[in-house]
Write a structure and sequence with these properties.
With 420 residues, this protein is α+β, with helices and mostly antiparallel strands. 30% of the residues lie in helices and 25% in strands. Strands 21-22-1-23 form a four-stranded mixed beta sheet. A four-stranded mixed beta sheet has the order 2-14-16-15, with helices on one face. A four-stranded mixed beta sheet has the order 4-5-3-13, with helices on one face. The structure holds ligand EPZ.
Length: 420
Amino acid sequence: MPKFIITGGKALAGEIEVKGAKNLALKILPATLLTDEAVSIFNLPDIEDARRSIELLTGLGAEIKKTGPSSLDIQTKKIKNSELSPEFAKKFRASIMFVAPLLARLGEVKFPHPGGCVIGAGERPIDLFIEGFAALGAEIKVDGRFYHLKARRLRGAEYFFTTITVTGTEAMMMAAARAQGKTTLKNCALEPEISALAEYLNASGAKIKGAGSPTIVIEGVEKLSGGKFTIMPDRIETGTFAILAAAARAPLTITKCNPAHIESLLAVFKKIGVAYEAGSDWLKITPAKKFKSYSIKTHEYPGFPTDLQASFTVLMTQANGTSMIHETIHDRRLLYADMLSQMGANIIMCDPHRVVVNGPTRLFAKKLTSPDLRAGIAMIIAALIAQGETEIDNIYQIDRGYENICERLNKLGADIKRID
Ligand code: EPZ
């Protein structure tokens, strides 16, 4: 089982470049199925989940040509089947993003319940996707673990999300883009990736208004064209590296990023005494020897992102004072807390969604397993500031969302060895 061996306590400094946003790439790739014309994608992150998406697309019949380390051309002229094989779909949750484009393009799609993260009670629910597709006129059949959706032509409808869902909003936007008539989506998620996906679809001829606001109105069109699209910087990588800088007291400059997408984190940095300067595409963190604790509650965008919650908890183990971390979006997203306390953190589990952290405490090396990609990167941050040699296995979970993380952090002075 591949693992990382991390020798903590090294002084880190320098510049780190942010890669393309994972949670946009995993929507743009399937969205290319909505047109039979050529699409060129740039600033694609080279991560496991993107590779799985590309494998899925190829398996469906797409012709894909790598045109550079982070760019490729995709032509989905010949889509030969409308079934997502469990072998691929089980590997990552974002396989669900293929359902809407296949349904809109072929009028039919078969897929297993998506797999991937351990977060989310048992399996991540997809009830809102199924209800949404039904609202657009799809016929739904479930046999065992397989869903079979059919719709000669999707018809525009009004749909209210009873829970705010990022991928649910994106899936319905894709399905409605080529439906007959007008669709109004209400109580939509506001994440920047949604606005970026709408921008991509509109550039291909879709008629989507209101993305980034709670109400999105889509006028269905017959056909979408191809085009060129550059993936925006990953806001979660940006926030993760900013938190690393503060926790490791490392003067880092984070480049090719968009600081405006992590305002919620930077507002907290101001309150706890971590200084930073920001430009339009860079962020310079000047770490503080001492900084205050601060309680956070994760929230849909623009609130504090759940994907930065684990890394922020590691930061709070080094802060002066008590903080409460309250995870409101996903179940089972505090699994790492126990491992942090084994490393010496003073963490009390109040209930499955809240932990109280008392800092500062010294952290000591431990043998760890990363339950999901965001807990995994939080363990790397903990290992980089801990005393001794930490071992982290199940690093596929980390490779799912962070390109070449080992080399990129070693360039800052870290000592991380990947043992395959
Ligand atoms: C997206 O997941 C991101 N993934 C997640 O990032 C992120 O944590 C999450 O949004 C919240 O920001 C991608 O974009 C690929 P949700 P998503 O649907 O869309 C419930 C990472 O680490 N729900 O917004 O799957 C759900 O259980 C990943 O990069 C239903 O009940 O999350 C959750 O409690 C992890 N029924 C809440 O909605 C549904 O049909 C919000 O989840 C769908 C969701």
